[in-house]
Write a structure and sequence with these properties.
The complex is a heterodimer of chains A (about 950) and B (about 120). With about 950 residues, chain A is mainly α. Chain A has 33 helices and 7 strands. Chain B contains 5 helices and 5 strands, in the order E-H-E-H-E-H-E-H-E-H. The N and C termini of chain B lie close together (about 10 Å). Classes of the chains: A mainly alpha (about 950), B alpha/beta (about 120).
Chain lengths: ~950, ~120
C-alpha cells in the first residue's frame, strides 16, 4: 500500500504546504499584519530544538541508558528558568545593536572584531555539520525503511554512488528549499516571518505525530487487550534493557550533570536557537510565555518515549531492529500504514525544521562574518560599483549548498559509526565553547578581543582533539591507535582520557577539558591588557543593557561624512527603496525635513552603521561606513577624556601623578612664561587701543580749542594766545605721535630703511647733546659728558641718524625726570668686552626695580612724581628696536630714589685700514656684526 | 545757586578747555587729576555734575563711577563720561555702570555744553 511514489508525493505535498504557509505569512508581514507576533508561535518556534534526534533518537537513547535520555531536555528546562533575565538581556542587546547571528553577537561585543566573528563562524560550521548530517540520515533512513513496508528491514549499509544515495537527493532538495525560504532579500534583521511561521507549524506537526504514535502504543499495544501485554512482563527478566526501563533510576550523576549543562547551553548557543530565540524575536514580552510553554512542549514530546521503548523492546527481538527506529517500525510491524506515514511526516518535519533554520543561520554567519571581511580586505573598500546586495545573497546561497553538501559528506564518512544521539552531543559540545565568551559579554567588562580569541581557539582545539577526531577514528578514518594508546604512543595524551582522566564518559571528559582550557585562556589573555575604547564602549552597551534603552551615548567620532555617500553605500546593500525609507524615517525622528538635510554627524553615521549591520553584520558595517566617512582613528587620549571608565582613568592618572611630580618645577616656570605671553598678546591689542586713545586725546584738545576760538570772537588776547599756543603744541604732539607710530610700525615690519656705515659714537654723543642741550638747560640741569675713558676710535656699524634718535630719546627722558633746578645728566662712553657702551644717567627719582623692563613696553611710562609724563610712551620701545636691530642691547639700571641709568651697547667695529691703530689693537677684535638683514636677538 | 561741576581728567589741556567752556556758561568748576582725587572731592562736597575721563592713573574712570554709584551718599550725582575710549563696548559699559551720558573724544563743544546743561537742569 505504501509505495515509493506515495511517500514522495506525501512528502512533497507536506513541503509544499509548508512553503505556502511561509509565503502567506511573509505576505501578511509585508502588509503589516504579522501573524507571528503571538507569543505561542514564538514558543513553538523555539521547539525547533527538537529535531529528528528527539523524534527518533530519544527512544533509542532510552533503550540504552534508561532515563538518561531526559538529560537533553532537563538542561533546557532549567535554562528556561533563567530566560527572564538572561534571554531578555540578550534580546535587548541584539535589537539595539542589530545583531544578526551569534557570531555577530560575540564579535560586536569584543571590539567589533571581524577575526572573532570569523572564528565563531568556523567553529559553528564545523560543530554543526555532524548535526545536519544526522538529520539527513534520519530522513534517508526513515524513507528507506518505510519503503519496505510491510517488511521491517533495516537499510543495509551499502555504498551507493552519491547520485543514487537518498540522502544526497534529500540534501539537494533541502538546499533548494532553504534557499527559497531564507535568501529572498538581504536585510537579515528583517525577520524571516515566513520561516518562523513554517517552523512553528512543523513543531505542532511533529508533536502531534509523536503523540499519535505514543497514544497508539500506550493504549493499543500495551494497554488491556493489546498485542504486547501478554508476553511482556515475562521477558522482562531476560532483557536487561527492558528491566532498566521498567525500574528507572538515575545512574552516573556526573554524566547527568554534564549533559544537562551541555543541553542547557546548547538551547541558547546553537545557531538555529539563537536565530529563532533572539534574531527572530519581535517582542521581548513573548519570552515570558516561552519560559513555561517551551518546557511544557518538551514534556509532552517526551511523554511517551518510555512506553514506545518498552513496546519496541518487546516487539522486536534483540538487535534486529535499531531502537532509533522504533517510532516508525512499530506502526509498520502492527499494520498501521497511515500511522507510519504520519510518523514519517513527523520525522520529516523535525529534520527539515532543523536544517532550514540552522543552515540559514550558518549561511548568514558565513556571508557576514567570514566571506565579506575577506572580500572587503581584498577590495580595500573601493567602490566596485557591483550590486553588493545581490553578491551577498549569492554568497549565502552558495554557503547553504556547501553546508548541506558537507553535511552529506560527514554522513557518508562518519555517520555509520555512531548512534544518532552521540553525534548530536558532539555538536552540543562544540557550541558550548561559546559559553564563556557570551556569559562574560553580558556580565563582565573586562574581556578583550584577544582573550575571546584565545578562549575560543583553545576550547575548539580541545573539542577537536577529544571528540571530533576520535569520532573519525571510530569510523575508521583515522588509525585506531590514535585513541589507544594515544598519539605517538603517549598515554597522557590519549584523546579520550587526557592526562589520565580515564573512565569518564567521552562527552563529560571533553566538556571538562574544553571548558576549562577555554575559560582559563580567556581570563588569562584578557588580563594582559585593559579593554580598549571600542571594547569598553561595547562592554557598557552590553553589560548595562537594562539601564539604558538606547545605545550608550553617542559615539566619540571625528571624521567627515557626506549624507549622499552614506545613502549610496546603504543602497548598494539594501536597495534604493528601503534605504530611502529608512533614511526618511530617521530624518523625521531628528526633526529634519529631508534626508539630505541631515547633519553629517556622529548620530547619523551611527544610524547608517546600524542600518547596514542588519544586513552584513556589525563589524563589516563599521568597516564600510568608516571607508566612506574618512574617519580619523580615535586616539585613546581623546576617548579617555570622555569615557568614564574607572579602570582606564585610574591607570592613566597613576602615570600622570608620577609625571606631574617630576614636572612640577618646570610647569610653574612654564605657567609664568605663559602668563607673560598672554600679557604680551593682550598688550598687542592694547597697543592698538592705546594708539587710538593717544591720537584722540590731542585731537580732542585741538578740536575743542578750535571750536572755542571760532565761536567766541570776544576772548581776551591773553587767553587767545594761550589757547593758540595749546593748539600748536597739541598739533605738534599729535604729529610726533603719528610719526613715532609709523616709525615703530616700519621698523617692526621690516620696512624701515637703514643706512649702515661705520659710525663714531663720540660724534653721535656730541650731536645728541647739542640737540637736547636747550631742553636740558631749560630744566636747569647740567650735562656732563665722559668719553675719554674709551681707547681708540669707538666705531660701530650702524645708522648714524638712528643712533642719534636713540640718544636724544634717552637724553630727553633724563631731562624730563631730573629734579628741576638741580638736575644732573651724565653721558658715559666705555669699551666693555668687545662692545661699546653708552650710558645716560640722571639724578631723578629713578625707576623702581620691578619696572626696569616695563618701561621698554609701548605706552608704558614710568610714574614720575605723580605728574602725567609728557611724552608718547613710544620712545624707548623704538630705541630698543633700533639698538637691537644692530645687534646690541639696551637696558635700564637703578632703583627707586637712586636715579635712573639707561645704557645701550653695540658691538665694536675693529678699526679699518688707513686709520691709526691705537691701543685698541691690544683688545681682541670682535667680529663685525652684519646688521643688514640680521634678525633681532 | 551756582551749579558746581567737577572735571576729572589728567590731560591738562582738556581740563583747560573744559574749564573755559563751563565757566563761560556760568558754572563753578573744580578739578581732579586722578581717580582718587576725584572720589575724595566728590565725597567732600557733592558736585552738581561730574565730567569724568576714563584713562587716568591710580583709579580709572569706570572704577570711580562704580564707587560713586555704590555709595548711597553720593550715588545720585549725574555723571557725564568724556573719554577717548569710544568703542561701543565701552560706551555700553559706562552707561551700564550708571553714567548718565557718554561722549567720546574728540567731542563737539556745543554738544558737551548742551549735555552738561541738560544734566544740570535736571537736578534743579
Amino acid at each position: 500500500m505504501i509505495t515509493g511514489p506515495l511517500i514522495v508525493g506525501v512528502a512533497c505535498a507536506y513541503l509544499g504546504l509548508l512553503f505556502a504557509l511561509a509565503y502567506w505569512a511573509d505576505r501578511r508581514a509585508d502588509q503589516g499584519r504579522s501573524v507571528i507576533g503571538h507569543p505561542t508561535i514564538y514558543a513553538l518556534s523555539l521547539a525547533v530544538y527538537c529535531t529528528a534526534w528527539t523524534f527518533y533518537g530519544s527512544v533509542g537513547r532510552a533503550t540504552a541508558t534508561g532515563l538518561g535520555f531526559l538529560t537533553i531536555y532537563l538542561g533546557p528546562t532549567l535554562a528556561a528558568l533563567l530566560w527572564a533575565s538572561l534571554l531578555v538581556k540578550i534580546v535587548r542587546i541584539s535589537k539595539s545593536q542589530r545583531i544578526t547571528s551569534i557570531a555577530d553577537f560575540i564579535a560586536s561585543r569584543y571590539g567589533m572584531s571581524q577575526l572573532l566573528g570569523g572564528l565563531v563562524t568556523v567553529i559553528a560550521v564545523v560543530g554543526v555539520i555532524p548535526y545536519i548530517s544526522l538529520q539527513l540520515k534520519a530522513i534517508a533512513w526513515s524513507f528507506t525503511i518505510l519503503l519496505h513496508y510491510p517488511e521491517v528491514r533495516m537499510p543495509r549499509v551499502l555504498d551507493p554512488a552519491f547520485w543514487q544515495d537518498t540522502a544526497f537527493v534529500v540534501a539537494l532538495l533541502l538546499a533548494a528549499f532553504t534557499m527559497v525560504f531564507g535568501t529572498r532579500h538581504l536585510d537579515a534583521s528583517e525577520r524571516h516571518e515566513g520561516m518562523v511561521a513554517a517552523i512553528a507549524f512543523e513543531s505542532i506537526v511533529k508533536l502531534c505525530a509523536f503523540l499519535a504514535v505514543g497514544l497508539w502504543v500506550t493504549f493499543s499495544l500495551l494497554g488491556p487487550g493489546g498485542a504486547l501485554t501478554g508476553d511482556g512482563l515475562a521477558s522482562a527478566a531476560d532483557n536487561p534493557h527492558l528491566a532498566m526501563l521498567l525500574s528507572p533510576r538515575i545512574s552516573a550523576p556526573g554524566d547527568w550533570f554534564a549533559i544537562s549543562l551541555l543541553a542547557g547551553l546548547a538551547v541558547m548557543l546553537l545557531p538555529r536557537q539563537f536565530q529563532v530565540a533572539v534574531v527572530e524575536n519581535s517582542d521581548q514580552r513573548q519570552i515570558r510565555r516561552a519560559i513555561w510553554l517551551f518546557p511544557f512542549y518538551l514534556l509532552l514530546i517526551n511523554l511517551f518515549v518510555i512506553p514506545i521503548a518498552v513496546a519496541g523492546l518487546l516487539a522486536f527481538p534483540q538487535g534486529s531492529v535499531d531502537p532509533d527506529t522504533f517510532v516508525l517500525t512499530l506502526p509498520m510491524a502492527y499494520e498501521q500504514p497511515w500511522l507510519a506515514l504520519v510518523v514519517f511526516i513527523g520525522g520529516l518535519s523535525a529534520a527539515t525544521g532543523m536544517v532550514i533554520v540552522e543552515t540559514i543561520a550558518l549561511s548568514t554567519m558565513v556571508s557576514n562574518d567570514l566571506v565579506l571581511p575577506l572580500l572587503l580586505r581584498r577590495w580595500q573598500s573601493q567602490a566596485t560599483g557591483a550590486d553588493l546586495g545581490r553578491l551577498l545573497l549569492r554568497i549565502r546561497r552558495l554557503a547553504i549548498v556547501a553546508i548541506l553538501l558537507l553535511g552529506y559528506l560527514y554522513y557518508r564518512l562518519a555517520g555509520e559509526a555512531y548512534a544518532l544521539v552521540a553525534i548530536g552531543l558532539i555538536s552540543f559540545a562544540a557550541v558550548a565553547q561559546f559559553a564563556p565568551a557570551v556569559v562574560a559579554a553580558l556580565y563582565w567588562r573586562g574581556g578583550t578581543r584577544e582573550g575571546a580569541l584565545a578562549g575560543l581557539s583553545a576550547g575548539f582545539l580541545v573539542w577537536l582533539y577529544t571528540l571530533l577526531l576520535p569520532s573519525f577514528a571510530k569510523s575508521g578514518w583515522l588509525p585506531a591507535a590514535f585513541l589507544d594508546p594515544g598519539p605517538f604512543g603517549i598515554d597522557l595524551l590519549k584523546p579520550q582520557a587526557l592526562f589520565g582522566l580515564s573512565g569518564w564518559n567521552e562527552i563529560t571528559h571533553c566538556l571538562f577539558w574544553s571548558l576549562t582550557t577555554n575559560v582559563l585562556a580567556f581570563l588569562a589573555v584578557s588580563s594582559l591588557r585593559a579593554p580598549d575604547a571600542t571594547e569598553a564602549a561595547q562592554a557598557s552597551a552590553y553589560v548595562d543593557a537594562f539601564k539604558h534603552g538606547r545605545p550608550a551615548g553617542l559615539p566619540i567620532w571625528r571624521g567627515s561624512a557626506e549624507i549622499a555617500e552614506l545613502m549610496a553605500l546603504a543602497e548598494r546593500f539594501l536597495g534604493t527603496e528601503r534605504t530611502r525609507r529608512a533614511f526618511a524615517d530617521f530624518a523625521l525622528s531628528r526633526g529634519v525635513a529631508a534626508p539630505g538635510d541631515l547633519p553629517p554627524d556622529a548620530q547619523t553615521v551611527r544610524f547608517a552603521e546600524t542600518l547596514l549591520s542588519g544586513a552584513i553584520g556589525g563589524a563589516s558595517a563599521r568597516v564600510m561606513v568608516a571607508s566612506v566617512t574618512e574617519e580619523e582613528t580615535l586616539g585613546i587620549d581623546e576617548v579617555l577624556n570622555i569615557l568614564d571608565e574607572a579602570s582606564q582613568i585610574r591607570a592613566y592618572s597613576r602615570e600622570l601623578e608620577q609625571k606631574s611630580r617630576a614636572l612640577e618645577a618646570a610647569t610653574s616656570e612654564l605657567r609664568a612664561a605663559n602668563l607673560r605671553l598672554q600679557e604680551l598678546d593682550r598688550l598687542k591689542d592694547d597697543f592698538m587701543s592705546s594708539v587710538t586713545h593717544e591720537l584722540r586725546t590731542p585731537l580732542a584738545s585741538i578740536r575743542a580749542f578750535s571750536e572755542i576760538l571760532h565761536d567766541d570772537p570776544d576772548i581776551e588776547l591773553g587767553e587767545r594766545k594761550r589757547f593758540l599756543g595749546i593748539l600748536v603744541s597739541e598739533t605738534e604732539r599729535l604729529s610726533r605721535l603719528v610719526n613715532q607710530v609709523l616709525d615703530l610700525a616700519k621698523i617692526e615690519s621690516g620696512h624701515a630703511d637703514w643706512l649702515v656705515e661705520p659710525v663714531d659714537l663720540r660724534e653721535v654723543i656730541a650731536q645728541s647733546a647739542a640737540t637736547t642741550g636747550r631742553l636740558i638747560e631749560g630744566r636747569g640741569a647740567e650735562l656732563v659728558v665722559h668719553t675719554d675713558h674709551c681707547d681708540g676710535e669707538p666705531l660701530v656699524l650702524a645708522d648714524r641718524d638712528r643712533l642719534i634718535q636713540v640718544l636724544v630719546n634717552l637724553l630727553s627722558n633724563a631731562a624730563k625726570f631730573t629734579p628741576a633746578g638741580s638736575g644732573q645728566v651724565e653721558i658715559r662712553l666705555t669699551r666693555w668686552d668687545g662692545a661699546l657702551r653708552v650710558c645716560v644717567a640722571d639724578n631723578g627719582p629713578g625707576i623702581p626695580e620691578g619696572e626696569l623692563e616695563l618701561i621698554f613696553e609701548k605706552f608704558r611710562q614710568a610714574s614720575a612724581g605723580g605728574d602725567k609724563p609728557v611724552g608718547t610712551g613710544l620712545g624707548l620701545p623704538i630705541s630698543r628696536q633700533i639698538v637691537e636691530h644692530f645687534g646690541g642691547r639696551i637696558w635700564a639700571e637703578g632703583g627707586a630714589e637712586k636715579g635712573a641709568t639707561l645704557c645701550f651697547e653695540l658691538p665694536a667695529l675693529a678699526a679699518g685700514p688707513g686709520r691709526p691703530r691705537s691701543q685698541a689693537a691690544a683688545q681682541p677684535p670682535t667680529p663685525p656684526s652684519q646688521p643688514a638683514g640680521e634678525t633681532r636677538p | 545757586m551756582t551749579k558746581r561741576v567737577l572735571i576729572v581728567d589728567d590731560e591738562p589741556n582738556i581740563v583747560i578747555s573744559l574749564e573755559f567752556l563751563l565757566k563761560r556758561e556760568g558754572f563753578a568748576v573744580s578739578v581732579a587729576r586722578d581717580g582718587e582725587e576725584a572720589l575724595a572731592a566728590i565725597r567732600a562736597q557733592v558736585p552738581d555734575l561730574v565730567i569724568l575721563d576714563v584713562m587716568m592713573p591710580k583709579l580709572d574712570g569706570f572704577s570711580v563711577l562704580s564707587a560713586v554709584r555704590a555709595d548711597p551718599a553720593v550715588a545720585a550725582v549725574p555723571v557725564l563720561m568724556l573719554t577717548a575710549k569710544g568703542r561701543e563696548a565701552e560706551q555700553k559699559k559706562g552707561l551700564g555702570l550708571g553714567a548718565n551720558a557718554y561722549l567720546p573724544k574728540p567731542f563737539s563743544t556745543h554738544e558737551l555744553v548742551a549735555k552738561a546743561k541738560a544734566l544740570l537742569s535736571g537736578s534743579a
